[in-house]
Design brief:
- This protein is an alpha+beta fold.
- Among the domains are: 92 residues, ApbE-like superfamily (T-fold, Orthogonal Bundle); 142 residues, T-fold (Roll).
- Helices cover 31% and strands 24% of the residues.
- The radius of gyration is 23 Å and the shape is globular.
- It binds adenosine-5'-diphosphate and magnesium ion (MG).
- The site of magnesium ion has 6 residues, from helix 8.
Length: 366
């Protein structure tokens, strides 16, 4: 009898300790053209991970501009012809992209596709195109000719040769979707990392804040220059010149964020822009938008939006923070310096941009 009682007690204790111990899991897969990993710190289940990764694959199958047969590819194939019926999520992401296009007066433009395809940066077709090819592709970039019809549930590109490209924003949407699915499946703490586009879900089981590294734009091995400390659901997203690029024969650095005025990679002295926000689609849209706008306009825009913060890093390893970022960002790499935008000396790299091909100095390793 006694033995039975003791073993029942031990069993109850065991169950109690099981139910209070955080259940963890980790999974990494290739999706959305990058390495995607999900680390669950509490509330893990196989089903939660299965569903989250299935959603990433579904988003890729809809929104990739590179793969034949995706919905975006169908919209591109039909350019100049019929409108194409597309589901709510693709219209939602396109609408967001058009919002950032409006906010940046076209520096961000989801019809950038002909230029992205021409340069082929990050693909085996990457090359420096001729000036004529660039101007022909540039003539096909026009956000006003992207027709989004919510009533009919369609998208249409008005001119043949136009191409929709959601590469600057789809990964952010995917991180939001993965986070939503994990939370719905009972996950209470997780880190989603879609190729450096990081989103934390819920609270850490030990009650400590999340610490998220801000990528070193001169180092593609995942090094960081500083740390963002946040509680609760937050996302940290970086756009930079060293994420996808190639070097021309003369050593010129060609990267993947393109200037909608010139058709060449943006050259404005910035090496990266990191956004801290709660919605990853907005952070992803904004990281590319602020990068394309450059430091002065980008910082002004960041300071005007009270729901996000930004960290700008320039080619000279100077770091500029939006007003609210100072409270949550700590610089940890002393080869970078904190600087103030309004006090800086004009540098050669600030003299933009119009007409000139990109030419970014090869960085010195930190
Ligand atoms: P990441 O590859 O880390 O997601 P971004 O979010 O900055 O980087 O997105 C870069 C991608 O956005 C490019 O590969 C291209 O598909 C697209 N793109 C490039 N230039 C522009 C632009 N001016 N406006 C909108 N999208 C762009
Ligand atoms: Mg982006």
């Amino acid at each position: 009898m006694n033995i039975l009682r003791i073993s029942a007690c031990a069993c109850a204790l065991f169950l109690l300790s099981c139910s209070s111990a955080p259940s963890t899991a980790e999974r990494t897969e290739l999706a959305l053209g990058t390495v995607c990993s999900v680390r669950v710190l509490d509330g893990a289940s196989e089903k939660a991970l299965d569903d989250a990764f299935a959603r990433l694959a579904a988003i890729e199958a809809e929104m990739s501009a590179n793969d034949p047969g995706t919905l975006v590819d169908q919209v591109n194939q039909a350019a100049g012809g019929q409108a194409v019926a597309v589901p709510d999520d693709l219209r939602y992401v396109t609408r967001k992209a058009l919002e950032y296009a409006a906010l940046s007066d076209g520096a961000f433009d989801p019809t950038i596709g002909p230029l992205v395809k021409l340069w082929g940066i990050g693909t085996e077709d990457e090359r420096v195109p001729s000036a004529d090819e660039v101007s022909a592709a540039l003539a096909m970039v026009d956000r006003w000719l992207l027709e989004l019809d919510d009533q009919a549930g369609t998208l249409r590109l008005a001119k043949p040769g136009m191409r929709l490209d959601l590469g600057a924003i789809a990964k952010g949407y995917a991180a939001d979707e993965a986070g939503r699915i994990l939370a719905e499946q009972g996950v209470t703490a997780a880190v989603i990392d879609l190729g450096g586009n990081v989103k934390v879900v819920g609270r850490k089981p030990d009650g400590s804040p999340w610490k998220i590294g801000v990528q070193n734009p001169f180092d593609d091995r995942g090094a960081y220059i500083g740390i963002v400390t946040v509680t609760g659901d937050r996302t940290v997203v970086t756009s930079g010149v060293y994420e996808r690029y190639f070097l021309g024969d003369d050593g010129t650095h060609y990267h993947h964020i393109l200037d909608t005025r010139t058709g060449y990679p943006v050259r404005n002295g910035l090496a990266s822009v990191t956004i801290i926000a709660s919605s990853s689609i907005d952070a992803d849209g904004l990281s590319t938008t602020l990068f394309a706008l450059g430091l002065d306009k980008g910082l002004a825009l960041a300071n005007s939006l009270d729901w996000m913060e930004a960290v700008f890093i320039d080619e000279d390893k100077r770091v500029y923070l939006s007003d609210g970022a100072q409270a949550i960002f700590e610089l940890t790499d002393d080869s970078f310096v904190l600087a103030q935008a309004d006090l800086r000396e004009p540098s050669l790299s600030d003299t933009n941009t119009q007409g000139a091909p990109s030419e970014v100095q090869t960085p010195t390793s930190p």
